[in-house]
C-alpha cells in the first residue's frame, strides 16, 4: 500500500512518543517535524537536554566571545536525535536571515550555519532558541508506517511548549494539547 501522502501535513507538528515506543532514542520524547515530503522526514527532539553541556560550552569550543546573558549562556544543549550527533542545529522563533535556515511554517526556523551561534553569543540573535546536536530522520514511508503502528501521536507545534515549558514537562504538555494524559496510558495502548 502506498502511504507516501498519508500524513502530508506533519511539518510544524510535534510527534509525541507513545509509551509503547521502546526505542531508547525516542522514549518519552517530543520531536518537532521540520521537513516531511515523499522522500521522508526530518525533525529535532525538543525535550532531552544533554547532561553538562551548555551554550557557553559551545561558544567556548568555537572560540566565540560571550556577551550574552548568563541565563542564555547556561541554556542546555539538547539531544536532537540519533542522526549526525556532531551536527549543531539551532531551532529558533522567526525565520531570520541566517546563512542556512530551513523555514518551519511561518514562525520557526532551523539553522545549521555558524552565524546564528555568533549572533547568540553577542546577544543579538533570535529572542527564543534551542540548540540541538543531531536530528531524527525517517526514510520514504518510514514515519507513515510508524504512525500507523501507533508509535506516535501528532499535534500542531506550539512555540510556548518549545521555548517556555520546562524540558521535563514538554512530553505531557504536548499531549495535553489534544486532551491526552500520557500518565494514564498503558504501554500497550492501541494494540489488540
Task: Fill in the keyword field for this structure.
6 helices; ten-stranded mixed β-sheet; VC0467-like; 192 residues
Structure overview:
The protein is α+β, with helices and mostly antiparallel strands and about 190 residues long. The protein is about 20% helix and about 35% strand. The chain has six helices and ten strands, in the order E-E-E-E-H-H-E-E-E-E-H-E-H-E-H-H.
Q: Which secondary structure elements does this structure contain, and how are they paired or packed?
A:
Blueprint: E1 13-17, E2 30-37, E3 40-45, E4 49-54, H1 55-61, H2 70-73, E5 76-79, E6 83-93, E7 101-104, E8 108-111, H3 114-121, E9 129-138, H4 142-148, E10 152-156, H5 159-163, H6 170-176
Parallel strand pairs: 5-9
Antiparallel strand pairs: 1-2, 1-10, 2-3, 3-9, 4-5, 6-8, 6-9, 7-8
Helix content: 10-25%
Which CATH top level class fits?
Alpha Beta
Instruction: Summarize the biggest pleated sheet.
Output: 10 strands, mixed
Q: Which descriptor suits the 3D outline?
A: globular
Alpha plus pi helix count: 6
Order of helices and strands: EEEEHHEEEEHEHEHH
- Ends apart, CA distance between termini: 22 Å
Which structural class do you get from the secondary structure elements?
Answer: alpha+beta
Beta-strand segment tally: 10
**For this structure, what is the CATH homologous superfamily?**
VC0467-like
CATH architecture heading: 3-Layer(aba) Sandwich
Mean pLDDT reading: 88
Number of individual domains: 1
- The percent range for strand residues is 25-35%
CATH fold field value: VC0467-like
Integer-rounded radius of gyration: 17 Å
What ranges have pLDDT less than 50 throughout 5 or more consecutive residues?
1-6
Amino acid at each position: 500500500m502506498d502511504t507516501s501522502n498519508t500524513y502530508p501535513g506533519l511539518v510544524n507538528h510535534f510527534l509525541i512518543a507513545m509509551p509503547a515506543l521502546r526505542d531508547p532514542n525516542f522514549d518519552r520524547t517530543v520531536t518537532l517535524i521540520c521537513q516531511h515530503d515523499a522522500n521522508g522526514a526530518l525533525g529535532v527532539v525538543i525535550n532531552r537536554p544533554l547532561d553538562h553541556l551548555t551554550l557557553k560550552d559551545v561558544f567556548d569550543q568555537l572560540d566565540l566571545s560571550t556577551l550574552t546573558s548568563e541565563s542564555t549562556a547556561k541554556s542546555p544543549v539538547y539531544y536532537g536525535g540519533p542522526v549526525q550527533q556532531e551536527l549543531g542545529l539551532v531551532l529558533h522563533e522567526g525565520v531570520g536571515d541566517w546563512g542556512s535556515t530551513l523555514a518551519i511554517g511561518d514562525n520557526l526556523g532551523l539553522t545549521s550555519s555558524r552565524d546564528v551561534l555568533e549572533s547568540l553569543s553577542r546577544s543579538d540573535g533570535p529572542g527564543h532558541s534551542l540548540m540541538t546536536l543531531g536530528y531524527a530522520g525517517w526514510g520514504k514511508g518510514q514515519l507513515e508506517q510508524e504512525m500507523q503502528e501507533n508509535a506516535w501521536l501528532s499535534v500542531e507545534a506550539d512555540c510556548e511548549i518549545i521555548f517556555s515549558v520546562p524540558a521535563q514537562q514538554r512530553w505531557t504538555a504536548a499531549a495535553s494539547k489534544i486532551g491526552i494524559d500520557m500518565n494514564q496510558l498503558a504501554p500497550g495502548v492501541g494494540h489488540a
